[in-house]
Design a protein that fits this description.
hpI Integrase, Chain A, 3 domains, two-stranded antiparallel sheet, about 5% strand
Length: about 375
């Protein structure tokens, strides 16, 4: 049996003799192959083109392989759809680093971003996709502030992807037309008569929507607080409701009027963790009931009204704040409404029509003629020569 042989190359590099291993004859190496390899290295050294040692060849091959691997990984990252990126990367990161903010972002994702752009590659989201998203939100009758919030969520997703080399820098909210006015305070609150008309209309349209609307109007809660209310948070005997998760992170207890307790008592109690108010599908509401918007439209309450002058579900909270501001001291008002700063009381409470009429009467009194007893008579003066 012929003994196995091991082939090496001996060559000079920068005046130094080096020896580099090739391999065993049993692995396919022959004298002819070794000589060919040596000749190729000498030719590269003579011409100055290519690698002059096996070490250099291995280093170059390794660098090329690493570059190709990196290119493939980058291509895979850039080929991911927005929905996949949200599910596998952004949402897990967000829940670990900013759980409170992710509740709101998750709602905007489910309602607007996923249905419109979920199937689009993250790397392909350009101005046309931004325009489509903003137009979709606007076409649904949402406010400029809602557009700003939705666009802000998408920008944060894309900024997160940019920091990981998936996309370029996302455009600014101003560039995509999703900025909101500096002052988006609503200029109109729903009147008692309008509220009763809406409730009457809702009762015939959708009893479920009527209940949640009645609850929001009678408690002044945020829409999200009503939608997330569970049976364990409701105590009809004590006539209270607890909102454990609020916008400012503080739990809040609100009183329930007798009329509201009566309306809720007619509901069959569910499991402790089940939502009190459910939509037609049996799930918790995620946005204002469509029946509420339909009722407002049917009553023509928003005809020829400016955006900030339109009645929306959030107007119920403004109504409650305006009513309570007349009977509660500031500290109590802040506690019931769930505000941390007094400025919110000024933002949400509105001057009611009867107050405006009282002001008009007070100002108009200055324009009325004085009574005879207090009449002022101008002097006729004296003629020259009178004594």
């Amino acid at each position: 049996m012929k003994a196995d042989r091991y082939f090496t190359l001996r060559l000079y590099v920068d005046g130094k003799r080096i020896e580099e291993a090739l391999g065993w004859a049993s692995d396919g190496w022959t004298l002819a192959k070794a000589q060919a390899k040596l000749s190729a290295l000498r030719e590269a050294k003579r011409t100055g083109e290519g690698e002059t040692t096996l070490r250099e060849k291995r280093a170059v091959a390794g660098a090329k392989k690493a570059a190709e691997t990196k290119r493939q990984e980058e291509e895979e990252r850039r080929n991911v759809t927005l929905e996949t990126y949200w599910t596998n990367t952004y949402e897990p990161w967000g829940r670990a680093t900013k759980p409170k903010a992710m509740r709101q972002e998750g709602c905007q994702w489910r309602m607007w971003i996923k249905p419109t752009l979920g199937d689009v590659r993250v790397a392909d989201i350009g101005m046309s996709q931004w325009d489509f998203l903003v137009k979709t939100v606007s076409a649904a009758g949402k406010s400029e502030r809602t557009r700003e919030y939705v666009a802000g969520t998408l920008r944060r997703i894309l900024k997160h992807a940019h920091e990981r080399g998936v996309v370029d820098v996302p455009p600014s909210a101003k560039r995509v037309g999703a900025t909101a006015p500096k002052n988006n305070r609503r200029t109109r609150t729903i009147s008692d008569e309008e509220l009763q008309a809406v409730l009457d209309e809702l009762k015939g349209r959708d009893i479920r929507a009527w209940r949640v609307t009645l609850f929001a109007a009678a408690t002044g809660c945020r829409a999200s607080e009503a939608f997330r209310l569970r049976w364990t948070d409701l105590d009809l005997n004590a006539k209270t409701a607890v909102f454990p998760k609020t916008k400012n992170s503080d739990a809040r207890v609100v009183p329930l009027a007798d009329e509201l307790v009566t309306a809720l008592a007619d509901l069959p109690a569910g499991k402790p963790t089940s939502p009190v108010f459910t939509n037609e599908a049996g799930g918790a509401y995620r946005e204002a009931p469509a029946a509420f918007r339909a009722a407002v439209d049917a009553l023509q309450l928003n005809e020829e009204r400016e955006p900030r002058d339109r009645l929306v579900f959030h107007s119920l909270r403004h109504l409650a704040a305006t009513r309570l501001a007349k009977v509660l001291p500031l500290r109590a008002l802040m506690d019931v409404m769930g505000w941390k700063v007094p400025a919110m009381a000024l933002r949400y409470s509105h001057t009611r029509q009867e107050d405006l009429e009282t002001a008009a009467r007070a100002l108009g009194a200055a324009l009325k003629p004085a009574s005879p007893a207090g009449k002022v008579v101008a002097s006729t003066g004296r003629k020259r020569g009178d004594v």
